[in-house]
Amino acid sequence: PLSRYPPLINDISFWLPSETYCQNDFYDLVRTIGGDLIEKVVLLDEFAHPKTKKVSHCYRIIYRHPERTLTQDEVHRIHQAIEESAVRELGVEGRF
């Protein structure tokens, strides 16, 4: 069952490193860092730059605690850790 507490929604976008990128690796990274606070991760948009041919993904991450209301400060710390880990571990170039 879903929590009755409101969700907090944050988006993240980044340039993909190359053909070696796998969406499932990003989903795993988000769930590893956010744990039970991650309700849903959805790919919102995929963009290919017409000149550079670089590809960008934008994901929506929905945070929700099952027993209390989360603050934006709490979520911001987790979201920032996800951004830093994505750059470090997946080799993406952040657009944040």
> How big is the Rg?
14 Å
Can you identify the CATH superfamily? Answer: Ferrodoxin-fold anticodon-binding domain
Order of helices and strands: EHEEHE
Please report the first level of CATH classification, the CATH class.
Answer: Alpha Beta
Q: Specify the number of helices.
A: 2
Give the % helix.
25-40%
Got a strand count? 4
What count of domains describes the coordinates?
A: 1
- Terminal-residue CA separation: 32 Å
Shape, per Cα inertia axes: elongated
Q: Could you give the order of strands across the largest sheet?
A: 2-3-1-4
Low-confidence stretches: none
* Portion in strands: 25-35%
Mean pLDDT: 94
Q: So, CATH architecture?
A: 2-Layer Sandwich
Report on the structure:
This protein is an alpha+beta fold and 96 residues long. The protein has one domain (8-95): Alpha-Beta Plaits. The chain is 32% helix and 31% strand. It is built from two helices and four strands; from the N terminus they run βαββαβ. It has a four-stranded antiparallel β-sheet. A hairpin with a 6-residue loop joins strand 2 (38-48) and strand 3 (55-63). The longest helix has 19 residues, at 72-90. The protein is elongated and about 45 Å long. The model has no long low-confidence stretch (mean pLDDT 94). It catalyses: tRNA(Phe) + L-phenylalanine + ATP = L-phenylalanyl-tRNA(Phe) + AMP + diphosphate + H(+). Residues 3-95 form the FDX-ACB domain. GO terms for molecular function: ATP binding; phenylalanine-tRNA ligase activity.
